[in-house]
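Record GNAT family N-acetyltransferase, 297 aa.
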Amino acid sequence: MLLRPVRDSSQDAEAVRSAAHAARTAADGTGGGPPLPLPADPDAGRWHSHIRHLARTDPGGCWLAEDAAGRTVGAALSTRREGTWGLSLLAVRPEAQGRGVGTALLRRAMDHGRACLRGIVCGGTPHPAAARVCRRAGLELHPAMRLTGTVSVKRLPVPDGVVAGGGPGDRDLMDSVDRRLRGGAHGPDHEELLRHTRLLVTDDFTGSGYCYVREEGAAGGVELLAATSRRLATRLLTAALGVLGEGRAVLVHSLTAEQQWAVDVGLAAGLEVGTAGYVCLRGMRPPTPYIPSAAFL
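=>
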């Protein structure tokens, strides 16, 4: 087996996506599969863009595993943002599982975050392998909820303040909120998120916050939300569901028990609450009010 960095190329991006898709398919069909697969998303182009972005920003944290014939059998994507390490993906093809591929990839990903005091992983699957991977990386497991269903905008209250469309000029505001909640700004990840999602921002004398709304795909949702208070987070999530519109299928994932404000908004909008995987943390308590991004944490 050969481990090599993921290159910023369409070929490597497809190799990562294909390995993750194969692992997810196995998990869906047999109950096995990867510890940390990519979220389901039919838009391969969007994932290609995300993978190439991480290959550029974190070349030391993104790795491919290849067999003797040069075929990709696994992949890991990890990030380092101002002292906060994140594991975005760890996936191994079914035929290569149980051979130490995942362990070797995890070791390289963890080496990338060796100097980081904090760590975060969104484990979107309840499979036991996910728990083993996260505990091996020294992370605490916080069971997560998700909101699903179709939005009933008419049941939502009017947001209690101004929510505006955002853009690149809001980078300093967002980085400041990030540092307060998760100990490290998302930095260049905001540029990538702006390419694929709609940004909403709120900022008044009581604090500030932002929310990326995912409008494409079979289910819309929140890609990332952070605010300095629950009241502002409630305002942003209410506005985001309103943007998605009446009757829109929605998925909002990775809600820890600390995000009851989000559960309340979802229930008010007619969404259902279920359990799904974990948010795994090291050196920090669950950020709140906060909804992490599966890709950028």
